[in-house]
Amino acid sequence: xxxxxxxxxxxxxxxxxxxxxxxxxxxxxxxxxxxxxxxxxxxxxxxxxxxxxxxxxxxxxxxxxxxxxxxxxxxxxxxxxxxxxxxxxxxxxxxxxxxxxxxxxxxxxxxxxxxxxxxxxxxxxxxxxxx
Length: 131
Ligand SMILES: [Zn+2]
Ligand SMILES: [Zn+2]
Fold this sequence. Notes:
40% of the residues lie in helices and 11% in strands. By secondary structure, the chain is of the alpha+beta class. The protein has a domain at 20-104. The relative contact order is 0.25. The structure holds zinc ion (ZN) (2 copies). Residues 26, 28-29, 31, 64-65, 67-68 line the site of one zinc ion.
């Protein structure tokens, strides 16, 4: 059987790698979660992912667990407070996240043996890029 290449959208891959850079931890409560559970939050005023610079984008992204993500929306946490969370992100991590965001990758082919995991990753139950 020949390998079946599986295409992933760059945004999905990048999101997963950013979560890994942050140690798979929620940036508010600090608890560890699987990357399929962690969600990406865009701080108000976030630029469109397609045309923004990596620096601009990185300064608007928070990786949160579903609980803190829900809180930040339902409690209407002010933009300035959301931004203050970024101050706790280590400089080195910020640099690596910017590098990931700045990559111009269209798509990637996954070997067949990883297909099942890839499909799981590509369609997590709480999928949402920048909600
Ligand atoms: Zn949390
Ligand atoms: Zn959000």
